[in-house]
Amino acid sequence: MKNLSIVIPVFNEAASLKELLCRTTAACEPYSPYEIICVDDGSWDGSFELLLELKKNYEHLVIVRLQKNSGQSAALTAGFKTAHGSTIVMMDADLQNPPEAIPTLLENMDGFDAVVGWRKDRKDSFLKRAGSRIGNSLRRMILRDPFHDNACSLKAFKSAVAADLVKFNHMIFFLPDLIEIAGYRIKEVPVPHEHRKHGRSKYRTFSLSGISSFWDTLFVKALKKRKLTYTVERIIA
Ligand code: UDP
Ligand code: MG
Hints:
Blueprint (H helix, E strand, L loop, with lengths): L1 E9 L3 H15 L5 E7 L6 H9 L5 E5 L6 H11 L2 E6 L11 H6 L6 E5 L7 H18 L11 E4 H6 L10 H7 L4 E5 L18 H17 L12
Parallel strand pairs: 1-2, 1-4, 2-3, 5-7
Antiparallel strand pairs: 4-6, 5-6
Uridine-5'-diphosphate binds next to strand 1 and helix 3.
C-alpha cells in the first residue's frame, strides 16, 4: 500500500512529460511511499516511448498503456484501478495544473473524503472560459449543486471514493456530484492554473458536446434523486 497515487491521463503530451515527471516527483517526495501513474490514452506523438525512457530515471513511475484513444474519463478510470495509494490525486499532463498544488489539496483533506480544485483565475482563452461558465451555471441550476468548477482536473480523494464512483464516458465533468451521490464528504478549494505550454487542448471549444452534456446532466440528476441514504447504527462481527 502506498500513501499516495497520482493519476495522470496522457494523450499526445510528449513535450510536457519530462517537466511533469520532474515537478510531480518533487511535490510528492514528502508523502513517500507514492506512485505516479501515467495512463497513455493511445498517444501517437511518442508519449508512450518517452514514458518508457523516463521510467529508467523515475522509479515511482507506473505506465498504463491503453490500446487506443478512449477519452479522459476512461484513462482516469484505468488509472484508478491501477492505483495502490490510500489517497489518489488526479491531474492533467499538460502542466495547466501545477504539481506544486498537490500539497494544498492534501492539507485540506482533514475531515473530508475528497477535496476538489476550483480554478478561480483560469488561464484559458476567453471563449473556453465563457463556455465553461455557461456550462457550470446550467449544471448548477439543474443539479442544484454548489460547485464552481467541475471540470478542474486537480482533485484528491480517498481510494474508496474512486472505487465507489459511478463510471461513464464524460464522468469527469460531474465528479464532485458523483462523489456526493456516493455519500462522501467533499470540500472545494481554489487552486492555481497555468497556460498550456505545449501543444493544444484536446477539446474543441465549439462542438456537439453541449447536447450530450445536457443528457449527461439529466442522467446525473436521476442518479442524485436515487441517492442511497442510510446510517449504520452498529456492526457486530
Ligand atoms: N486527455 C486524454 N484523452 C483524451 C483527451 C485528453 O487522456 O482523449 C488528457 C490530456 O492529455 C490532458 C487531460 O486529459 O492530460 C486534459 O486535456 P486537455 O488539457 O486537452 O483539456 P483542457 O485543459 O483543454 O480542458
Ligand atoms: Mg489542459
